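B., you asked whether I could sanity-check this one before it goes into the benchmark set. Here's the sequence:
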Amino acid sequence: MKFVKTFLLAMLVLCLTIVTACGNSNNTNSNTPKATNTAGAEQGGKEENAGGELEPLKLSFFFPGNPDTVMPRGEDDFVRTYLEKKFNVTIAFDTLPFGDEFNTRLNLKISSGDAPDLMVISGTSTVQLFADGVMGNIGAGLNPEVMPNFFKWVTPEVLANYQIEKGSTARGYVPVNPKPITSYFIRKDWLDALKLDYPTNYAELTEVVRAFTQDDPDGNKRNDTYGFTTPGNGQMVSSYFPQYNNHGIYQSMFIDPKTKNFRTAYTDPVIGEVLDDIRGWTDKGYVDPDWFLSDNATSEQKFAQGRIGIIWGAADQFAFDSNPNSYFNQLKQLYPNADVRAFNPFPDHPVNLKIEPGYSWSIAQRTIEKSPEKVDRIIQIVDWLFSEEGYLMTHYGIEDKHYTRSGNTITLNPQAYKEDVIDKGNFLVAWHAMTPERYTEPLGLEVVDPTLSNRDKEMMAVINDYGILQSATGYIPPEGFDWGSFATKRAEIQVQYLFEKNKYPEWTPLLHEFLTKYGANDLYNAYVEQTQATGVEVNDWVSPTGQ
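And here's what the prediction gave me:
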C-alpha cells in the first residue's frame, strides 16, 4: 500500500494537490494509512513529499535480517514504498542474517565493484573494510544539525570516540538497548524429565550437560541431544562458553569490579584453565560436535529443532511467548510441551556487561567518490529511520492498523502485525537493523504489548536481576594498528591451545608473540588510557607475561 505522510491539515491538502499535478495520482488512494506526524518538523520543516523537488536516485542497501526474513515485493513492503515516495529514490534492498553467508555476499558485492551504498555490518568487519578503502568518510553530514533525529540516540562525543581513526567519520553508530536481555537459556522440561534442579555452580552445570547428552532427556530413545552449543564460525572459541564466567572472565573485555584491572578473554593468564575445562566438555561429547564450524543461525536452529539443552542468547529471540518467531515458539511446534527458561548458572557472578554497540552503518567509498548526490539522500533516509515516525513504522508498522496511539503510549495490534509483517517475510527486522528493539526512551514513548505473557514478564524480571559489569568506552586503536592480523592471531592461539594440546601444552607461552609482535600490549594499553580519560577507575595495563 502507498503512503502519504500526514503533516498539518492544510499542508496535507496542498501536498496531495501537488502529487496529482505531477501525474502521481496512481500512487495514492483513499485508503492510504496515516503515518506519524513527526519527521517534517524534526527535519527543519522540509516539505513532506519532496518527490517533485529531488532528483530521482537509485540506491542499494544491505542490512542484516533474521533467518526467516524475506523482503516482499511491491506495496507489501510499506517502508520501502514510503521511503521511495518521500525521498524520490528507488531502493534495491538486500538482506541476510549475520554470519558466513552475509559476509560472503558482501565480499562478492565489493569485489564486483558493486558495494552497497548503505550497509549495516559488524563492528569488527568495519575495521578491515575501512583499512581496505571500502567504507568512506561521511563528512559534514554526520552532525546534529543535519541529523537531529540520529543525535537523539548518540552524542557527538560518543560518536567521535567510536570512529576507527581519530577524526574520521566512516562509522555510523548503531545504538543498542542499554538494558541487557541476554542470558543462558535452558530446557526446563528436560530438567523436569530427568528430575534435575537448575544448576548453581560449575559442578552442577557439568552434570546437567552430561545428563542432557547421555540420559535421553526428550525420551525418544535416540542419542541425538547435546548439553550445550555455541557458534565458532570455523575460526574462534566463543566467549559464550560458561567456562569463561566460571573463571571470572565475564565478557571479551571488561574492568574487573574487584581489582579494577582491565581483563580480556584473549590475554588473561586464566584462559588456559578456561580452555582446559572447555576441552573437558567437548572431549566427552557434551557439546554439539559441530559447534566450531557453526554460525549463529546454525546453532540457533539446532536449539529450535530440540537438539540442544543450554544456549546463550537474547530473551525476545529465544524464549518469548510474545515473539511468534522466537526459537521457543519454533521449538513448541515440534515439541508442544517444551519449556525454555532464563537462568544464571553462577548466581554470585555478573552475567551482562552494560551494552556497547556491536554494529555500524556505513556508506561505501565508491558512493562517496562517484555519486556524492547519493550521500545527502542516504543521510536524510538514515535520519528518518531514527525519527519517531521512522522508529514506529519500522518496528511496529502503520498507526491505526498495526498499533494505536494515545499520547505517548503505543499499543500494539499483534494480529494485524502478524498478517502484514511476519507472514509476509518478517521484513521489518531488516528495516530496523539500525535501531534497538524494545527501547523507546530516547523518543519518550511507552509501548504496550498485549501479547507479553506473564511468563515473558517473569523471565525479564529474572534477567533484570542479574549483575551488570561496568562498561568502558568506545575504543580507538593506535594509529596504523593492523587489526586484521591482530584479530586473526587472537582467535588462532585459543584454537591452537584447545585443539592441539600436544603441540601447545602451555597457554602463557602462546601469549608472548601475540602481545608483542601483534600489538596486543599496545592496543590494550591504549584502551586503558582512553577508559581512564573518561573518569572510569581502571588500573594501568600490565602485560600478562611481564613483557
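One thing to flag: Residues 1-51 have pLDDT under 50 and may be disordered. Otherwise nothing jumped out at me.
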